[in-house]
Design brief:
six-stranded antiparallel beta sheet, single chain, globular, 423 residues, alpha/beta, Rossmann fold, P-loop_NTPase, seven-stranded mixed beta sheet, Putative type II secretion system protein E, 15 helices, Beta-Lactamase
Length: 423
């Protein structure tokens, strides 16, 4: 389910001002230790600082000139450190040992796990690695803080969108789907929905790959492809365990899709994620999976499409008035441009010299009401479905993003970067 480069409220406390460790300070700190300490303390410090910075991933990329270390913060990779070629194998071996991987095997891809016990109570880390032309490469995925949940109101949903989602979450059965590309915050949204349903009177079960957040009161299952325990196999077993709510990490194949749809039709609430560009395109994905239109229409209650946009840095920004081109794009009368104030970030140490700090979600929520249901049964195209939903008041991703620009949360440049079709 791993999306989560995907935390919609990535502006954690560690990304504020006031003496926080930022890019330049971290670079200087690590460089000062390279020649003094071994790979163990260096790796430990790097992991500790990555958590403090709110990073979601750490990349260890071997190249001709040594090992390049990069952190992904707010969805963007930043170069932090370059180690000499002689240190590459030491650092990689240290990480593989911590992750329980075979340090003698360098020819095939491997997966590993660094537990929070090893990390002195910090969050778990998932490790993936494999051979490259210049040696082994490792990517560390820093799992979300299990004690910190993001409510629907904090995700970035428009109030009307949040109310619509809450309504469909409380439906007695059926599916709620979160769709979008990798790293768009789908998993965080599904966890937020699951938290709203989490009470002792219900049987809640998740099927994940991997389990990203540990939730009190929820039975969480991790699939294991090595023993052919996949989403479909796990879902079959869960359906025999009297569930009220099932969260499926990701619907990846026709078999899982068919089982999930049947579950949604038989009195179970199903939450899941799917890779689709926008809400209406989800219906096409289900059609491609071979699910009859009647079953799609009767099982899917709501589809949420989303993206993550970087937020203007609150510690280093400036106001400005949009020019004529910006006014036209935002739907503003150019003659009124001087009365409209937008914000843009100023590159500084506190924001990795990007002008941005933290992220917010933008959403498109498609409720499958009677008219949309009829259109699905009639095999209307995704474009026709999207048009019908827009006519019925659905806010598009582009419109939601423009509202964030107008409110000063993000910029036109960031909107274009993430929503290329909006350009």
């Amino acid at each position: 389910m791993n999306d989560d480069k995907e935390i919609a409220s990535d502006n954690t406390n560690s990304q504020g001002s006031g003496g926080e460790v930022r890019q330049k300070a971290l670079q200087e700190e690590l460089r000062s230790l390279i020649d003094v300490v071994g790979p163990g303390p260096l790796v430990d410090l790097l992991l500790e600082r990555a958590f403090e910075l709110g990073a979601t991933d750490i990349h260890f990329d071997p190249r001709v000139d040594g090992l390049h270390v990069r952190l992904r913060v707010d969805g963007i990779l930043h170069g932090i450190l370059q180690l000499k070629p002689g240190m590459t194998s030491q650092v990689i071996s240290r990480l593989k040992l911590m992750a329980g991987m075979d340090i003698t095997e360098r020819r095939v891809a491997q997966d590993g796990h660094i537990s929070n016990a090893v990390l002195k109570g910090q969050r778990d880390i998932r490790v993936g690695g494999g051979p490259t032309l210049h040696g082994e490469r490792l990517v560390l995925r820093l799992m979300p803080n299990a004690r910190e949940y993001t409510s629907l109101d904090q995700l970035g949903l428009d109030p009307a969108q949040a109310e619509s989602v809450r309504t469909y979450i409380q439906a007695p059965y059926g599916m709620i789907l979160s769709v979008g590309p990798v790293g768009s915050g789908k998993s965080t949204t599904m966890y937020s929905c699951l938290e709203l349903l989490n009470n002792p009177g219900k049987s809640l079960i998740t099927i994940e790959d991997p389990v990203e957040r540990r939730m009190e009161g929820v039975n969480q299952i991790q699939v294991d492809q090595k023993i052919d325990f996949n989403f479909a196999e796990a879902l079959r077993g869960v359906l025999r365990q009297d569930p009220d709510v099932i969260m499926v990490g990701e619907i990846r194949d026709p078999e899982t899709a068919h089982i999930a749809v049947r579950a949604g039709l038989t009195g179970i609430r199903v939450l899941s994620t799917l890779h689709a560009n926008e809400t209406a395109a989800t219906i096409d994905v289900f059609r491609d999976f071979g699910i009859p239109p009647m079953f799609i229409a009767d099982s899917v209650n709501c589809v949420i499409s989303q993206r993550l946009l970087r937020k203007v840095c609150s510690n280093s920004s400036e106001d400005y008035h949009p020019d004529a081109a910006a006014c036209q794009f935002l739907g503003i009368d150019p003659n009124e441009g001087e009365s409209v104030t937008l914000k843009r970030g100023i590159p500084a140490d506190c924001n990795f010299h990007t002008g941005y700090m933290g992220r917010t979600g933008v959403f498109e929520v498609l409720p499958v009401d009677s008219e949309i249901r009829d259109a699905i049964i009639q095999n209307k195209s995704s474009r026709e479905l999207h048009k019908l939903a827009a006519e019925r008041g659905m806010m598009s991703l582009e419109k939601a993003a423009k509202q964030k620009v107008l409110s000063g949360e993000t910029t036109i440049e960031e909107l274009h970067r993430v929503l290329v079709f909006a350009a």
